[in-house]
Amino acid sequence: MRPSRTSPVLALLLLLTACASGAPGASPSTSAPAAGAAGPTPAASAEPPAGPVVPASCAAITLETGARIASTDLAACLTDFVRAAGSGRFEIRQADHVADQRWALVDGGLYAIGTSDGEPSVAVTPDTGWLHSDGGWVQADPGGSTEQMLAADGVDMYRATSSPETTYAMITAAPGFTVGERTEVELADGTTTSLWPIRADAPFQPVAAIPATTTELVVWTDVAGPTVRMDVTGDAVAGDGQTYSGTATTFFSQWGQGVDLAEVEELVGAPLPLPGR
Fold first, then answer.
1. Are 138 and 121 in contact (CB under 8 A)?
2. Cβ partners under 8 Å of residue 275, min gap 6
3. pLDDT tens for residues 1-32?
4. Each residue of 201-215: pLDDT tens digit?
5. What is the pTM of this model?
6. What residues have CB less than 8 Å from 107, skipping those under 6 apart?
7. Is the dihedral of CA 31, 206, 22, 16 positive or negative?
């Protein structure tokens, strides 16, 4: 993503917080994940999959106006559900820019392909990755050329945003959450649907090492687990002392539907060992 009118540190804050919410992997919860379930797509409907199967950890969440939710309970539910789904897609919109990721989780780790403003940007497998630069792919190699070392840094950061530990830590950094009144909200395709807002009770710093604050975080959902949309607003103080603000909106879709990762297969040079094959 190449955000405009925001500092790099703020862009990273928003990217980390929004991406982490869709990150595949197990949470530090002891709840056993359930079998994956198909989910809504922004272009079709925000309704949850028919008879969605959600992790036991989501039973701690009550969706009714005014209900309080502990940060640890929300973090466990969200990350357990993503692991149960096993694959999906999300689109992040910030200012005039759009980033997209399709991902699939396997026992060995993550397969993912990302785009920025419609152009390929990053591809990841459990043991390697590529950044797209000057019209071509550069494979990550921390001991290679300057371009390859930069690619390695970028791939490592991308993996960090998809880490279940990062997901869990960021959500639990919030002081708590409260369910708001069910409201009509806009989806990625411009249509609207009625969803529950789960809102952080106060601003918080999601990453101790980053001098930035999430001033507002809202998770929009119909059923506890399969998130439909997330809104994240943040402030950051740059090295020159200037404060920057920005908002990122993430739309989640294709939960458990087996997303297309043909670009990654082309880079690997072989079919990916994805579930169901």
1. no
2. 86, 87, 104, 106, 258
3. 333 334 445 555 555 555 555 544 333 333 33
4. 999 998 777 788 999
5. 0.83
6. none
7. negative
